Amino acid sequence: MATFSVIPAASAPSPAKASRSLLARMREFDSYIAAVKSGQVGKLAPSTGETARGISVRVATAAKRQGKTAETWVADGTVYFKVS
Q: Which of 14, 36, 59, 61 sits between 20 and 30 A of 29, alpha carbons compared?
């Protein structure tokens, strides 16, 4: 079981900031969400080292950041998504 304690805010370490590569990936997926209009479906094929599940999670997270929802599904290793 975890050990819980409460400390003064001044004693806590600063939160870690997102790296440049993470920010770049977030902007990349934000642009995918913005590109898909009503009546359209986005299609993302994983590159080497990526998984369809990982891409699905990043699509859903990007949509949430923009106040939208994304319906994702995988067919033949390719990720498809609709934005609403």
A: 14
The amino acid that residue 33 corresponds to is I
Question: Rounded to whole angstroms, what are the CA distances from 40 to 55, 60, 80?
Answer: 18, 16, 10
From residue 61, how far is each of 3, 6, 14, 64, 76 by CA, in Å? 30, 30, 24, 5, 22
Indicate if the alpha-carbon torsion angle 35, 36, 37, 40 is positive or negative: positive
Say what the alpha-carbon torsion angle 57, 60, 62, 67 is, to the nearest 10 degrees. -160
Note the pLDDT tens digit of each residue in 24-46.
999 999 999 999 999 999 999 99
Closest to 44 in 3D by CA, of 76, 12, 16? 76
DSSP classification of residue 49: T
